[in-house]
Amino acid sequence: MKVNFRWFGHQNDSVSLEHIKQIPGINGIVGALYDVPVGEAWPLENILELKNEITSRGLNLDVIESVNIHEDIKLGLPTRELYIRNYQETIRNLAKAGVKVICYNFMPVFDWTRTDLAKELPDGSTVLAYSKEQIENSHPDLIVEQMENDSNGFSLPGWEPERLSQLKSLFNLYSQVSEEDLFDNLRYFLEQIIPVAEEENIRMALHPDDPPWSVFGLPRIVTNKENLERIVNMVDSPANSLTICSGSLGANPNNNIPEILRYFLKRDRVPFVHIRNVKIYENGDFEESSHRSSDGSINLYEIVKALHDYDFKGYFRPDHGRMIWGEVARPGYGLYDRAMGIMYILGLWDSLEQRSEKEKAERSSENVTNQ
Ligand code: CS2
Ligand code: MN
């Protein structure tokens, strides 16, 4: 299991590579280019520049998150052809730079959606939180208005301010797109992308929708085991794989994450895992919590156990963490709590490892005695 850490680049991230390097067990950075507009091909030169910056600190750049997908692809518009060609070129360029896994998502319009970016917990830490009622009562027009007035940009994952004007027209366009249409548009994309990924030895790893249900009336399909199964079967190849994100899928208590993880590990469709915890309330609200199992609703021990049982050789990263110890950073992406998340996960992993080593040694000494 390779330990990774998401980093947004020296212009966009208050966490430095030097500090990330000090996290025990760290192997690589999950990175991306943030100055290429969605839909354009990523220039090889810029990818190599990012790679050199990271490798010169002794870290790898094996995983990219995310190469975002242009809305025209998700909408199934004729202009998608151009954006799909650009995406293919990006895959080829990333492969040239030695990248192994590309994480992406297929959520219309928004990436993760929350109603509070700094909800205070009783211990004084702050977390990202979601109020079901607040989302259900938000009309799309109102959202656009709120966003236009919000200058810090943090509440708009994936939304550059200059694209805000497109929001209204996107809501209109998506009102014509059903979930079945979205499945069709994903299939169309995969059919053209996966052969290129195969050729280039890259594994595409689709991230689940966060939260895994429709928001603001927009269709969402990457939401549960059944749909994940349908998607990996659309183009049956290890290149057509998944990012299993425990916090995203886990916001729906009907999703049994360890079970889903085991199922797709068995099928070799999990090159990348996001591990985090989330605390779910009965009314459908949720908030993020520390990684520790007892702090949230997800059993992280069972998740790490599943990875260990399958001798997971892929990549994982801690996902969002709390903001603690006065750190000022991008919500969800501070250094301290995510580093503690890594230590908790490695603690679970190491104890499983020790136990299986011990069992192996006991078995072989039994064999010797029996002979
Ligand atoms: C995060 C996302 O919501 C989450 O769990 O990990 O920001 C994720 O990085 C993107 O949706 C992947 O494309
Ligand atoms: Mn995630």
Automatic annotation (TrEMBL):
Superkingdom in the source lineage: Bacteria
BP GO annotations: D-glucuronate catabolic process
Reactions mediated catalytically: D-mannonate = 2-dehydro-3-deoxy-D-gluconate + H2O
GO terms, molecular function: ferrous iron binding; manganese ion binding; mannonate dehydratase activity
Record key words, sorted: Iron, Lyase, Manganese
Biological or metabolic pathway of the protein: Carbohydrate metabolism; pentose and glucuronate interconversion
E.C. no: 4.2.1.8
Cofactor requirement: Fe(2+); Mn(2+)
Family matches, as NCBIfam families: PRK03906.1 (NF003027), uxuA (TIGR00695)
Protein family according to the UniProt entry: Belongs to the mannonate dehydratase family.
Primary role: Catalyzes the dehydration of D-mannonate.
Name of protein: Mannonate dehydratase
